[in-house]
Structures are given as C-alpha cells and as structure tokens.
C-alpha cells in the first residue's frame, strides 16, 4: 500500500509538471488569478484577526472569555469556554482561522485533543466579507443573495457543532480531565486566570506585537501558496480533460437530486478552489436556485485548497485531520439543504416585497459600495504589511548579528 501511494504521488506530480510545460500561458493566468484573490481579499481580510487573536491569547483575554462562556460552550458543544472565542473569530475572519486558533489553544494546553478536533471541525467558515462581497456581489451581482447564502452557511456551521459534540465521547471518558468538567461561573476566577496567563508570557508588549505580526504573515504566506497552487491545479485538470471526465459522473448524481447537469463542472472546480467554482457557477445557464444550492455546498466544504491549508496547520499539533474533513463534508451537505429550505422565505419573498415597494433598496445593498471601496484599499494594506514584516525581520537579524 505504501509503495502504491509512492507511485500515485510520483505520477500525479509528474503529470502536473508536464501540464505546466504544455500549457505555460494558462498556468500563468491561473497563478495570477489565485495571487489576485490572495492579495486583494484573503490577506487583508484575515491579517487583522490573526494579529488580534495572537495578542488576546498572550494578554490572557481568551482565558477570561473562556471562563465566561464555559457554562454555555461546555453543555452545548462539549468544548471549553475558550472555544467560543475560536468560534467567533473563525466566523468573523474566515478560513482557516478556526483551525489555526484551535491548534494554538491545543499548543497552549487549553483544550484536549478531542476538544481541539471538535473545535477545528465546526469553527471554520467563510467570513461575511467573502460571502456578501465576493460571492453575492462579485460573482452573482445580486446582493440580495447574501442573506440567503450567509444563513445557510452559518446555520450549517452551528448544526455541525451540535453534531460534533458526540464525537470522541468514548475516548474522552477514558481520559477525562476533571479540571475541564467545571461549568460554574466566577468573575474573580476569570480575572485571576487572565492575570495568570498574562504573567506566564514574559515577553514585553512590543515583542508580543512584533511576533504576532510575523506569525500571522507567515501563516498567510502559506495560505497564499496553497491558493495559487490549487488555482493552477484546477486549471491544468480542466485543460487535460480530467474535470470533464469526472463531471460526467457528477451529472448522473445531479439527475437523482433534480439539479442541472450544467453545474457539474462548477462543483468539481469548487471542490478544488471555491472562488473558481463560484465564478463558473454564477456564469452557468442553470436555474438560480440550483446555482445557490451547489455554491452553498462547496463554499461550506471549503475546497481542497482550504483542506490542505488546515492539514498543514494541524500537522504542528497532535490534532487529527479526519474529524475536520468529516465536519466539512457535513457542513457542505447541511448548507446545501438549508439553502434549498430557505430559498423561498429569504429570497423569493424578499424579492416580491422589493418589487411591490417600487424597487426600494435592500438593506444589504450598501455592501456593493463597500466591496468596491475594499478592493481599492486592500492591495495597499497587503503591501504595507509585507514591508513592515521585512523591516521587523531585518532589524531582528541585525540585532542578532
């Protein structure tokens, strides 16, 4: 089995190398598209949250919040109160923030192995900026779809969290840690834990800030590499006919669920890289509801690009990747189901009200303006941050030499 895996990996990498030689122009265009997505959206959107989360952990604020949220997170999701912080930051900042913070809490000893795997499985999601901006406005040119996509996405996320509470219960009972069974609240204890966490980190504030920036940028550079790699891989598979071949089997599956076969290729592309899939889905000739169902699935699943990012992050701990993958698959299925259920109340009915009111603006229409403004300033945020990290690294090297 090990030898077969070696041959498969060697064949796949060789095929990719040959494809790059045969289609250099297409590979460059795909690489630039992935780079543009990372430079304009992913990096500036995730950077503030990554830096803030590092500082909040170092200052002990996460321990303080964890004590507050313990009575809620423990009985509902079977994770410590600090998991509430991971969930909130993952929702606000997007993939792969939830996995990064879950891994960080595991390294700090705040969560057990099972709890960390539960957290990683349900705290990863796309952020509102991506759903409302990139998907609804950027690709579908319909800001009214943002609410439907968001409710299906985050509703599915909550459902995955409730399902994952049953994961690992037998293993958890065998290694139960009594210090994690407390669910009472104490303000004095919360303050004490925050102070203890801050005192344990002996770095000065300036050092903590610099380390937070450099750590966040290193993670985001890794994320950017995966986005570019899978953008190129997706394009190469399409050019050599692999995507069309697999799409024929997906079309058969779609016929069972009465979905348009036009969406088989967008789904397959979305399973590799969600922005490529969303772009193809929005431009297909399928009905809008079919597009939204399929898009909801692969956006929640995350694509193999995000799966690879998370696998790289989790490899630094003892957290296993399998629970995360199962959670993403469940999230995709639940989000697609919720998109179908919520289609009429959250989109069709709102559209009818919009039309009867003479075309009054949706509350979410302001996002179109915000998205345009964001795309103008985001590249400068990325460039400024990278220059800052280069300066900090250079200064550290000069001091050490």
From TrEMBL:
TM stretches of this protein: 43-69, 119-140, 146-168, 236-256, 292-313, 325-343, 377-398
Domain Nucleoside transporter/FeoB GTPase Gate: 41-136, 220-313
Family matches, as InterPro entries: Gate_dom, Spore_IM_YlbJ
Organism: Alkalicoccobacillus porphyridii
UniProt name for this protein: Sporulation integral membrane protein YlbJ
UniProt KW Transmembrane keyword: yes
Superkingdom of the organism of origin: Bacteria
Keywords: Membrane, Transmembrane, Transmembrane helix
Keyword hit for Cytoplasm: no
Any Pfam family the entry gives: Gate
């Amino acid at each position: 089995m090990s030898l077969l895996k070696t041959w498969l990996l060697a064949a796949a990498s060789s095929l990719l190398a040959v494809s790059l030689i045969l289609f250099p122009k297409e590979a460059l265009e795909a690489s630039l598209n992935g780079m543009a997505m990372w430079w304009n959206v992913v990096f500036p959107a995730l950077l503030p949250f990554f830096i803030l989360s590092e500082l909040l952990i170092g200052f002990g604020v996460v321990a303080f919040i964890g004590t507050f949220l313990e009575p809620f997170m423990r009985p509902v999701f079977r994770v410590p109160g600090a998991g509430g912080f991971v969930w909130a930051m993952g929702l606000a900042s997007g993939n792969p923030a939830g996995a990064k913070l879950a891994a960080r809490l595991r390294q700090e000893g705040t969560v057990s192995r099972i709890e960390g795997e539960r957290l990683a499985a349900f705290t990863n999601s796309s952020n509102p900026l991506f759903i409302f901006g990139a998907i609804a406005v950027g690709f579908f040119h319909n800001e009214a779809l943002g609410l439907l996509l968001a409710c299906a996405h985050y509703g599915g996320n909550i459902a995955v969290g409730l399902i994952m509470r049953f994961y690992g219960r037998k293993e958890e009972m065998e290694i139960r840690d009594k210090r994690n069974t407390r669910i009472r609240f104490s303000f004095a204890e919360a303050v004490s834990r925050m102070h203890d966490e801050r005192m344990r980190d002996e770095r000065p504030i300036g050092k903590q800030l610099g380390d937070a920036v450099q750590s966040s940028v290193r993670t985001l550079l890794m994320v950017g590499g995966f986005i570019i790699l899978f953008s190129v891989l997706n394009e190469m598979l399409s050019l050599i006919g692999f995507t069309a071949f697999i799409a024929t089997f997906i079309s058969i599956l779609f016929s069972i669920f009465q979905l348009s076969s036009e969406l088989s290729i967008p789904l397959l592309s979305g399973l590799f890289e969600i922005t490529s899939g969303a772009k193809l889905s929005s431009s297909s000739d399928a009905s809008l509801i079919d597009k939204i169902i399929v898009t909801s699935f692969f956006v929640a699943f995350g694509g193999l690009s995000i799966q690879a990012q998370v696998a790289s992050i989790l490899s630094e701990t003892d957290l296993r990747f399998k629970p995360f993958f199962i959670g993403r698959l469940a999230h995709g299925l639940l989000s697609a189901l919720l998109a179908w259920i919520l289609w009429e109340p959250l989109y069709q009915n709102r559209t009818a009200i919009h039309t009867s009111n003479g075309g009054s603006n949706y509350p979410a229409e302001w996002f179109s303006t915000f998205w345009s403004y964001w795309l103008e300033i985001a590249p400068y945020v990325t460039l400024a941050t990278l220059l800052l990290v280069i300066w900090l690294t250079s200064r550290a090297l000069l001091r050490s030499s």
